[in-house]
Amino acid sequence: MTGGRGGADNDRRVRLLASAAAGLRPVEDVLAPLGQRFADAGHELYLVGGSVRDAALGRLGTDLDFTTDARPEQVKELLSGWAEAIWDTGIDYGTISAAKSGQQIEITTYRADSYDHVSRNPTVAYGDTLEGDLIRRDFTINAMAVRIGPSGAQEFVDPLDGMSDLLAGIIDTPAAPEDSFNDDPLRMLRAVRFVAQLGFRLQPRVFTAIVEMADQINRITVERVAVELDKMILGEYAVEGVRMLVDTGLADRILPEIPGMQLTIDEHHQHKDVYNHSLTVLQQAMDLEESDPDLVLRWAAILHDIGKPATRRHEPDGGVSFHHHEVVGAKMVRKRLRALKYPKQTIEDIATLVFLHLRFHGYGDGTWTDSAVRRYVTDAGSLLPQLNKLVRADVTTRNKRRAARLQSNYDDLERRIAEIAEKEDLARVRPDLDGNEIMTILGISPGPEVGKAWSFLKELRLDRGPLDHDEAIAELKKWWASEQS
């Protein structure tokens, strides 16, 4: 047995290497013939980057990244007749992509790029060595490689000692972080994303460089920023990722509403720390997820109270209020996510959850009428399961009795929803008469009046539940008579 800390680290290193080998075993039917083809043509081929990192961590996905000394045209020729599909959309950057046996493959020629320090797009230059290619990568944990030789023979290559950082759970850059981030400022956000995905910590020099260079993130397109933000929020350690986004100052540039929740607590502690409350809600929402991470739920959880700073009022009795912060917050969500060019439906879903997250608190102790329950379900629509989780996650009080009462009340509301749903199709609450019937009964043509009549019947349906056909006709005629008088 090896003694001491060095021995323990060596044991872990051996286990990680064994884990990487085991992780690559399921894709040997891809690696072996691919390595053979390149070897037969006199070229080197290395699995590299996140593929090696994730194999060592036992989380290899369906993306395999390679680097080679072969030029793109040669790579394309070597893949022909073997890959199921080939595309060269990245050929200008030295990358040829392919699909084989369920794996997405990217093979990039050794690179030795230079940057103009204005955009993040490099001037592509091919390199001659693996070491030269690895040192230009973003982080040491992404600068490890596995040589894929003839018949799938494998050799681990780690000239920058990325394995040590992987063992230590550290995110560090191969070269000086200032140089790396100046070349590509998106790497600062990627560092935060890896905190969220892997639970690693930033090397102090990396953290310092991001703090000092945070404004450089403005060089990156909002579309690329949004992609990284989504990967961050979907990470297993999303709360730590958000904290790092704020602590480094990156959030001030791209999501200022989150650090904006760091309100000064009054001396009587009349309100919670909104920022830390929101982080707790995010974690509790994640804990309620049933399977895959829920992008909409997680964004709604961290953003649900962003309207509080703008609505905070100190009341005469010494208390603090945040009236209508859900309304203001929903508007802020739409504005920020539109600026980040999120898809319209995603924006609307997140904003709707933020707008509705307080609705439940009017429920009291089962005091809602059936009509109120119908409206709650109808307003939530397909988002009801996520609203259920968000409302439950929003209970962060330390008062155990109050927390238990709130959860009990929500249990009761869900029971009420289920009971009404057994009798009515709550998922599709529609008027008892359709547009054609409305026009026939009232003797009117298509136009605004039909829409008004439809809305009246919809409200009636929400208030009273399903009506029989004759009753619906009678109510429609009564309403129409009042409209004509």
From TrEMBL:
<protein>
    <submittedName>
        <fullName>Poly(A) polymerase PcnA</fullName>
    </submittedName>
</protein>
<keyword id="KW-0175">Coiled coil</keyword>
<dbReference type="GO" id="GO:0008033">
    <property type="term" value="P:tRNA processing"/>
</dbReference>
<dbReference type="GO" id="GO:0046872">
    <property type="term" value="F:metal ion binding"/>
</dbReference>
<dbReference type="InterPro" id="IPR002646">
    <property type="entry name" value="PolA_pol_head_dom"/>
</dbReference>
<dbReference type="Pfam" id="PF01743">
    <property type="entry name" value="PolyA_pol"/>
</dbReference>
<dbReference type="GO" id="GO:0000166">
    <property type="term" value="F:nucleotide binding"/>
</dbReference>
<dbReference type="Pfam" id="PF01966">
    <property type="entry name" value="HD"/>
</dbReference>
<keyword id="KW-0548">Nucleotidyltransferase</keyword>
<feature type="domain" description="HD">
    <location>
        <begin position="274"/>
        <end position="393"/>
    </location>
</feature>
<dbReference type="GO" id="GO:0016779">
    <property type="term" value="F:nucleotidyltransferase activity"/>
</dbReference>
<dbReference type="InterPro" id="IPR014065">
    <property type="entry name" value="tRNA_adenylyltransferase"/>
</dbReference>
<dbReference type="GO" id="GO:0000049">
    <property type="term" value="F:tRNA binding"/>
</dbReference>
<keyword id="KW-0547">Nucleotide-binding</keyword>
<dbReference type="InterPro" id="IPR032828">
    <property type="entry name" value="PolyA_RNA-bd"/>
</dbReference>
<keyword id="KW-0460">Magnesium</keyword>
<dbReference type="InterPro" id="IPR043519">
    <property type="entry name" value="NT_sf"/>
</dbReference>
<keyword id="KW-0479">Metal-binding</keyword>
<keyword id="KW-0808">Transferase</keyword>
<dbReference type="InterPro" id="IPR006674">
    <property type="entry name" value="HD_domain"/>
</dbReference>
<feature type="coiled-coil region">
    <location>
        <begin position="396"/>
        <end position="430"/>
    </location>
</feature>
<dbReference type="InterPro" id="IPR050264">
    <property type="entry name" value="Bact_CCA-adding_enz_type3_sf"/>
</dbReference>
<dbReference type="InterPro" id="IPR006675">
    <property type="entry name" value="HDIG_dom"/>
</dbReference>
<keyword id="KW-0819">tRNA processing</keyword>
<dbReference type="InterPro" id="IPR003607">
    <property type="entry name" value="HD/PDEase_dom"/>
</dbReference>
<dbReference type="Pfam" id="PF12627">
    <property type="entry name" value="PolyA_pol_RNAbd"/>
</dbReference>
